[in-house]
Amino acid sequence: MKLLTVNFLTCAVKACKGSPSAFPLHFRDVELELQDVDFQPDFIRNIIPRVDWEALHKMANELNFPNVPETKPEGEVLESEQLLRDLHRFLLETQVAEGKLTCGNCGHEYIIKEGIANFLLPSHLGSSPCPAPLPLVSRDAR
């Protein structure tokens, strides 16, 4: 799971909808991997305005990445190749292989296994109950 993806995720538990502490989700017990990705400076420049920078900076601190600036880079700052490379490495090349994402509101943990987070919720936590199964109709009853 790329770190950029986490910036767009929030807790799926019904009780957390609208709660400010449900975002960002927090990493716990993570195993990180680096995967080479071609450097894409234009992509980084274009994605920066869409990123919740406060959440991104918090995530960088939790994962001990010192090269993520405290404030969102704008204007001429985005012309710095070193900054773009640092952000590219953090957002696109650094991936979570194993671990957990935890909601700051309810504490629910989403397990990350082989780079995929499981956001399926038990029915008592979901936003709507599962529909009742359709009755089976035997062929004889037709």
Can you lay out the helices and strands and say which pair or pack?
Elements: H1 3-6, E1 26-34, H2 41-47, H3 53-62, H4 81-93, E2 94-102, E3 109-113, E4 116-117
Antiparallel strand pairs: 1-2, 2-3, 3-4
Question: What can you see in these coordinates?
Answer:
The chain has four helices and four strands; from the N terminus they run H-E-H-H-H-E-E-E. The protein has helices at residues 3-6, 41-47, 53-62, 81-93, and strands spanning 26-34, 94-102, 109-113, 116-117. The longest helix has 13 residues, at 81-93. The N and C termini lie far apart (50 Å). It comes from Aspergillus sydowii CBS 593.65. This is Multifunctional methyltransferase subunit trm112. It is found in: Cytoplasm; Nucleus.
Features:
142 residues; protein heterodimerization activity; alpha+beta; cytoplasm; single chain; Trm112-like; 24% helix; globular; four-stranded antiparallel beta sheet; Multifunctional methyltransferase subunit trm112; N-terminal domain of TfIIb
Number of helices, where a helix is a run of at least 4 consecutive DSSP H or I residues: 4
Estimated share of beta-strand residues: 15-25%
Order of helical and strand elements: HEHHHEEE
Separation, N- and C-terminal Cα atoms: 50 Å
CATH third-tier fold name: N-terminal domain of TfIIb
Tally of DSSP β-strands: 4
GO cellular component, one term: cytoplasm
GO molecular function, one term: protein heterodimerization activity
Protein name: Multifunctional methyltransferase subunit trm112
Family: Belongs to the TRM112 family.
Brief description of this entry?
It is found in: Cytoplasm; Nucleus. By secondary structure, the chain is α+β, with helices and mostly antiparallel strands.
